């Protein structure tokens, strides 16, 4: 039997994706090669248009690569999607205002045909993970922006998939709320041992959260640096003042600058 415990959860080799547009081809991804191991927290950082979202969408089988290969849990992205290998969190919480928080989290479970008892227990567990247990019967508009985003994370967690793909989930929130959500996300990651792919524009956020930071650059969208973080997995917020943190942030900044110089 093959040992799958050490095999990468996501493995991309020479992955390229070119969109054909009226203005000519757009090279959203070029020769991207990356391995993500089980339980890693991987951030994708880079300027607008460097292909961060496109890469997440390829993992999720929402876009097809033009060339190269990618596997998710050892399968094609299509097979992984059918096996419900991941949950996806978007930048906007995208909750239906006429449904309660529990109703929003339940919706995909209803569509997938889970029994109502199963739906109920999954909703309770997901709400507990994002510390929203008392808010099941509230409507989205009764919650703050940060709480709405936590509810959308709960919706993605309700499938109990091993992989969580998050596309700039906290980008629209103020810094204090974002700090708190970053802390909560790390706690959640430690409790659930999920593999997380996280898109961000923020250097401190990427360094604080990640075990691996993937620095990207546009035209064509490509990886310019991959940084394996030496920081411990348990991180208080004030780790951001430590010399190790500042050094990694500096390397990310240099990677971003180098990508710009190539333009
Ligand atoms: N469906 C599409 N059709 C044509 N071009 C596209 C499509 N989706 C993305 N692109 C282009 O591909 C490039 C990469 O886009 P992508 O959204 O992946 O970048 P990003 O790094 O996530 O940017 P941002 O930080 O602004 O979200 C951009 O130039 C974008 O305009």
UniProtKB/TrEMBL annotation:
Gene3D superfamilies: P-loop containing nucleotide triphosphate hydrolases (3.40.50.300). The keyword Nucleotide-binding applies. One of its GO terms (molecular function) is ATP binding. Keywords: ATP-binding, Nucleotide-binding, Transport. InterPro entries: AAA+_ATPase, ABC_transporter-like_ATP-bd, ABC_transporter-like_CS, ABC_transporter_ATP-bind, P-loop_NTPase. Residues 10-239 form the ABC transporter domain. Belongs to the ABC transporter superfamily. PANTHER family: ALIPHATIC SULFONATES IMPORT ATP-BINDING PROTEIN SSUB (PTHR42788:SF13), TAURINE IMPORT ATP-BINDING PROTEIN-RELATED (PTHR42788). This is ABC transporter ATP-binding protein. It comes from Roseinatronobacter alkalisoli.
